[in-house]
Amino acid sequence: MTVLRQPLRHLPPLREDLVLLGGTPAHTGEPTWLLYDPARHRYMRLDQDGFEILSRWDAGTPEALLAWLAHETTVEAGVEDIEAMAGFLERAHLLDGRGTARHPPPPQDLFSRLLHGYLFFRIPLVRPRRFLPTLARATGWLFGPHLPWLILGLAMVGGFLASRQWDAFLGTFTAYTTWEGAASIFAGIVVSKIVHELGHALTLYRAGGRVPTMGIAFLVMFPVPYTDTGDAWRLASKHQRLRVGAAGVVAELLLAAIALVLWSFVPDGPLRATLFVLATTVWVGTVLINASPFLRFDGYYLFSDLLEVPNLQARAFALGRWRLRRALLGLNDPPPEVLHPRLRRVLTAYAYATWIYRLILFLGIALLVYHFFFKILGIFLFLVEIWVFIARPMASELAVWWKRRRETRRTPGGVLAGVTITALVVACVIPWRSTLQVPAVLDAAAVSPLYTPVPARIDAVLVAPGQLVAAGDILVRLSSPDLAFRKAQAERDLDLAQVRYNQAMVDAEGIQQAAALRQEVLGLHTRLSGLNTQEARLALRAPMDGRMVDILPALRTGLWVNQDVLLGRIIAAQGGRLTLYIPEDVLGHVRAGSVVAFRSEGRGNTDLHGPLGALPPVALDRMDDVLSASVGGGGVAVRQEADRSLRPISGTYQAAVALPTAQVPQRQRGIAIIEGEAETLAARAFRRIASVILQESGF
Asked: Please, which residues bridge with residue 45 across strands?
């Protein structure tokens, strides 16, 4: 406890509404008491010394209180213990509010209030005392030793019925892809959480406790239902408190078993999807989250009651810090409290496991908050999360280490920690040359796709897959009845126009129309020439020397094809081109001229190497290569826009590597291995952070 800064001359009066109750014995057998604050519905546990001091608080002065203790008890207390108790009562707002507190807490500024409200706040919604008696009478038959057997029996019956239509049961997953499915998931979560909280409330009520409120708590703006079960502290039996703590999960298991049975009797629709969610998904998440003792959910209080260690985390963390300071700094402080060695080891291990768990969890929450909110606000809230949950506790502990640096001595643990930290620092400041892997596609140096100029029918296929062709070779002969009809019509029109023109030239009266008829004849000649050109293009010829690949599998005589159907590709027989898709966070590690090797997908290493070409100044806005995109199984994450175009999700730059001696029989997708620039880990981290800040802030 923190000692008050000024000497305590008079004992400040307690609030008159406080209640002192008997508590359950501690794990050592020592009696305990509960100090109940009805204004906040909070219970504070007192040990024997605290009870003796508080029960004589009306002595008036510290000296009178100490004399009273010495006369009637065996408690060995001093003025510092009295001042520590006064500080505790003041911080817990248990003193009479008539100006007796010597150090009233300073008012919080607006930022602190907003920060605390953002991190955690509660909204009471229901006062269950109005309906709990009726609900307890209606559900009384569920409470008893038969409940586990009931849940097991319902689960077995439901599982048997579902197994008889197993494909339909698993097929309920497809409902998740619709808006109705999303509504079913939400409805299932809401129903399960209501049942969960009612399980806590009913169990506590039946044990004789009071449930003042139920509502929603917001943890980092994430809604979590809650039930005020503070009265569980008053329960004398540990088993009763354990039943209250486990009641929520047990209630959800019962609900899941009932939903599994009902699923077989309900027709397809939103209700059946909701039952599926209740039977398979929601309760699993509840067990995984609530069973964890590392956060203050059901699992934490169950673990606390099981060990019979109230205020578990604070006491475990104090032991963890004591053990850490002893091992690393050699501080010879006495342990925070006297415990059995086995329990001390358990609490110390629990403290370290909780710190690691919270580090991972809060980093995940910070990243989630960063991505959830818009740009600069996301960065700000990310930094708030990191500071409040990770950096500030570490900074506080390091401040204690620095303040007591003159008391430290060398220990094996401290030497090992120093060597490890030094090695990490050195690793961060030494330039490291590494290889980088990015998605890539290997193609021939020159590629020519083969399309029909107009919708046409295939008359002959004159090439085979892999065949070498020369420029000008006919590959496919096509015919177009529509083109032939238009050509015949143009020929007839030309013949008629020529006849009319010839007649006009020999007829004195028609000589005036000769000029117009001549223009018509010339126009028809041009039209017919264009149709002849189109007809000649129906004989698809090789535009260059190369190899025929990627021939349309259905290509055959008599097949009709449109202009957008790829009939095949001609690739250069010699020379290749490697196209790289470099992520933005990798771009700074490579330079033009870096050595690049290609590893084909599914084919292991290759002997293809070449220098990286010039790096582009801007990222790709759209991708035309489906083979490299995620929708085609490639490594570049893209999203498909409304116009069916592909847009990279993150910044991606396209670069090329020329391979003049390579022979590429077909396109190959794979990985390009780039020899990266030497860079320190610290510089890489700084550049990445700066890049994110600039990108998200819109600069």
From this structure: 34
pLDDT of residue 668: 83
Helix (H, G, I), strand (E, B) or coil at 8: coil
Residue 134 and residue 111: Cα distance in Å, rounded? 45
Lookup result for tokens 């019962």: 254
| DSSP bridge partners of 547 | 468, 571
Q: Going by C-beta distance under 8 Å and a sequence separation of 6 or more, which residues neighbour residue 631?
A: 638, 640, 646
Which tokens hold the place of 457?
A: 């029918």
CB 698 within 8 Å of CB 378: no
Pairwise CA distance, residues 168 & 349, whole Å: 46
Token pair 């120093």: residue: 418
Cα–Cα distance for residue pair 632/625, rounded to 1 Å: 9
pTM exceeds 0.85 for this model: no
Furthest-apart CA pair in the chain: how many Å? 151
Please give the pLDDT value at position 496.
Answer: 87
Residue type, 627: L
**Do residues 287 and 281 touch, judged by C-beta distance below 8 A?**
no
One-character DSSP codes across 112-150: HHHHHHHHEEEEEEE-GGGTHHHHHHHTGGG-STTHHHH
* pLDDT for res 1: 39
**Contact between 653 and 587 (Cβ < 8 Å):** yes
pLDDT of residue 510: 61
Residue 34 to residue 234: CA distance in whole angstroms: 8
What is the reported pLDDT for 104? 46
Q: How far apart are CA 139 and CA 201, in angstroms?
A: 12
DSSP 391-458: IHHHHHHHHHHHHTGGG----HHHHHHHHHHHHHHHHHHS-B--EEEEEEEEEESSEEEE--SSSEEE
pLDDT along the chain (699 residues), means of 10: 57 83 72 78 79 86 87 83 84 69 48 55 84 90 89 91 82 61 77 90 89 82 81 80 88 91 85 83 78 83 84 87 89 83 91 88 72 64 75 87 87 84 83 79 84 88 87 89 86 84 71 76 85 86 86 86 86 84 81 85 68 86 81 83 81 87 79 77 69 55
- For 106, the 3-state DSSP assignment is coil
What is d(CA 51, CA 698) in angstroms, rounded to the nearest whole number?
60
477 CB-near residues (< 8 Å, 6+ apart): 458, 459, 460, 462, 538, 539, 540
- Determine whether 691 is exposed, middle or buried from the number of CB atoms within 10 Å of its CB (0-12, 13-18, 19+): middle
**Residue indicated by tokens 């059995």:** 340
Alpha carbons 143 and 138: distance in angstroms, whole number: 11
| Residues paired with residue 583 on neighbouring β-strands, in sequence order | 652
Q: For position 198, what pLDDT does the model report?
A: 92
pLDDT at 114: 52
Domain boundaries, the chain: 19-106, 119-308, 344-409, 438-442+570-697, 447-561
Sheet holding 468-469, edge to edge: 447-450, 568-571, 546-549, 468-469
CB 211 within 8 A of CB 132: yes
3-state secondary structure 9-56: CCCCCECCCCEEEECCCCCCCCCCEEEEECCCCEEEEECHHHHHHHHC
Q: How far is CA 647 from the centre of its chain?
A: 22
Count Cβ atoms below 10 Å from residue 550 Cβ, excluding itself: 17
Count helices and strands in the chain by DSSP H and E runs: 21, 22
Burial of 16 (0-12, 13-18, 19+ CB in 10 A): exposed
Q: What residue has token string 């354990």?
A: 242
Rounded Cα gap, residues 367 and 388, in angstroms: 14
Three-state DSSP class for residue 680: coil
